Amino acid sequence: MERIEREELRKQWLKRQEEIKDEDIEITYSYWDGSGHRKTVECKKGDTISRFLDLCRQQIHELRSVNVDNLLYIKEDLIIPHHYTFYDFIINKARGKSGPLFNFDVHDDVRLVHDATVEKDESHAGKVVERSWYEKNKHIFPASRWEVFDPEKNYGKYKIKDSKKSK
Fold first, then answer.
1. Within its chain, how far is the Cα of 165 from the centroid?
2. H or E element in which residue 130 lies
3. What's the CA gap between 48 and 87, in Å, rounded?
4. Are the C-beta atoms of 159 and 98 separated by less than 8 Å?
5. Phi, psi of 146, rounded to the nearest 5 degrees
6. Domains contained in the chain, number
7. How far apart are CA 139 and CA 71, in angstroms?
8. Rounded CA gap, 62 and 129, in Å?
9. pLDDT digit of tens for each residue in the chain (167 aa)?
10. How far is Cα 28 from Cα 34, in angstroms, rounded to an integer?
């Protein structure tokens, strides 16, 4: 009897996960060619980064002839591999160098607090760049800070900004 109940709960959980993956999300990103060109794209939580980049490519005239394999998505200074889905990061509450990778409440891409150890409650817009641009500029800021996302790596603990404290 307990085995049957467990199996039923497992099926319900899997069904719920598929429903979550099918939910729409709006991703704010910045096409980066040395300066940012902010845009938004709507996709599903279960979409791969590759699918997301394809949608971005269709929005940006200069990228329409570029193969998705030649695009990179950088979030919180991490190069996100194409095979991951947004769901993967959401469900695992994945963290980057300066906080959560995906909060879906992107505000201005400017930090007003000058303490790098203070985590803001929003995430920055990710950058979409051409691989060739990255290869030419990886020795120059900001590309010099970027590294490939490693799910095994701990990117550090941050304290949450206390919004009640005076500025």
1. 29
2. strand 126-130
3. 9
4. no
5. -75, 140
6. 1
7. 18
8. 11
9. 789 999 999 999 999 999 989 999 888 899 988 777 889 999 999 999 999 999 999 999 999 999 999 999 998 889 999 999 999 888 888 887 777 777 654 443 333 344 444 334 445 788 999 999 999 999 998 889 899 998 888 876 544 444 444 44
10. 18
DSSP 23-81: SEEEEEEEEESSSEEEEEEEEETT-BHHHHHHHHHHH-GGGTTS-GGGEEEEETTEEEP
Cis (ω within 30 of 0) for the bond into 142?
yes
CATH of the domain at 83: 3.10.20.90
**Residue 66 maps to a domain:** yes
The DSSP string of 94-119 is: -EETTEES--S----S------TTEE
C-alpha–C-alpha distance, residues 54 and 52, integer Å:
5
When computed from its CA atoms, the radius of gyration of the chain, rounded to whole angstroms, is 18
Domain residue limits at 97: 24-160
Residue 19 domain-assigned (yes or no): no
Note if the pTM is more than 0.90.
no
Identify whether 90 is part of a domain.
yes
Token pair 């950058």 in the structure block, residue: 127
